[in-house]
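Translate sequence into structure tokens.
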Amino acid sequence: MTAPRIFFYVQHLLGIGHIARASRIADAMASDGFDVTVVTGGLPVPGFPGDNIRTIELPPVVASNVGFSGLADANGQAAGEEFLSRRRDLLLQAFDEAKPDVVIIEAFPFGRRQMRFELLPLIDAIENAEPRPKLLSSVRDILQENRKAGRDDETVKLIKDHFDAVLIHGDPSFVRLEDTFPLTSEIAGRLRYTGLVAPPPAPEPTEVFDIIASAGGGAVGLELIRAARDAAASLPSYLSWLLITGPNLPEADFSALSDDAPANVTLVRFRKDFPSLLRGAKVSISQAGYNTVGDLLRSDCRSILIPFVAAGETEQTVRAERLKALGLAYILPEKGLTLEAVKTAIEKALAAPRRPAVSLDLDGAKKTAAIIRSMIG
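Result follows.
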């Protein structure tokens, strides 16, 4: 029997969370016997998608600012009409050649409106294909709130007109889609909760650090890493620190951090074994992004969360508050972050017992594959 063919579109614009989650899902689908093609549209990220996944790289675009109001190419130049038209044509060609049984579009139509120039033509191609593949939306559990008027209605119309299902990568006992998307009831029949897409349980770490501070992709985490570096210089020197800046931190900022780092601090851009390292750490300091929290929930490491709130972002704050309510995290504000606040939070975390085990469903990648297999028979 021919393996079912999956065509998985994912566009990351600022951080690496979207491509990391999609890569875990793609790996699970490949392990379940699917023939998976991942189409990426952002800057390359080491390790994502995995080596065993067929990948098509479109000419990359990134957010031209933290408000996601425009698109730029890999050199930071505004993405013009000719550039975007070429991307669209390459995407449509890839779809035509793949002849998939299932198309998954990550985030859209709940997000990624900037990509309508190529996603709406892709949806038209799907509708006109013979046979027509299933079309699924892949979305995280918490959406950005305070969207512009009419956006939610537009999203509902696209779902009703074109999408066979919406894969919600969350545990409904933790947060439900209607908590951040008010028109959920209008598409309730198409929703499928998969559980959180966390990594599989990690092996014991090959290195052990007392405190790990991480900034996700690194595009917006400089102040967090600086605060952690300064805290390392102020707290007892026997504590060992690992600072993970993310691959997108500008080189000048990385060099400045390295020059000023105390002797007990190791500074790196990326660690593929991050989930394993958390198992050996006493405290983690991070933003509250989806994937980082998934990694944390697989460990019993005490967690200090500093949610990203620039440009009116609300998603990480919602997630952090839910975790705090469950006794699973401390929270510090991103705005006005001070050395004294970071030191105090670390001292409290070090004095606290190891974090309690969680009862949340963390097997979202495998369950996504199972849900799709049940849909196609």
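Note: The domain at 5-197+362-376 is CATH 3.40.50.2000 (Rossmann fold).
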